[in-house]
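Figure 2 data, in text form.
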Amino acid sequence: MGTQWIEVFAGMKNPGMRHVLGLVLCGQQEQLPEDRTTTKNLERWEKIGLLRQGPGWELNEQLLTSALRARARPKPEGVQRFFNGPRLLSLPAKPAERHEVLRQIRDAAIGADEELSEERLNDRLRTIHPDVALLRRYMVDSLLLERSANGSAYRSTGAA
């Protein structure tokens, strides 16, 4: 399938190609204008692979099936199963997995040589999970972050 889906979406953006495709999909091929533009649009869809000629024009079901298979996302493994992109879905119950998740969060939120105010750290953590106090507390308890004596700033410990 590769980048064929990009061509399909580009074709869908073109009003003439969209109209021609709609008539074919609705079974109204007899309403297709017999002009150069329509022929050109049908040929474009055929080149992309979405339509093919049989007794008339028809949808290439095999292309759709292969596109869906190619775009199917593999199930996340390891600690990635606790994330949806950058967002944390839940903290793992197992301590080793929780530590790994927290390390990833720490590395995403604060650089190794960076010192952040609590407010700035909260802003960064909020993009990962709404309960920033919980994340901070767990990271400090896990020795992944260290809090300044007055509690106003945080640094990465660099611990793995």
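Caption note: Strands lie at 51-53, 57-59, 83-84, 87-88, 115-117, 145-147, 153-156.
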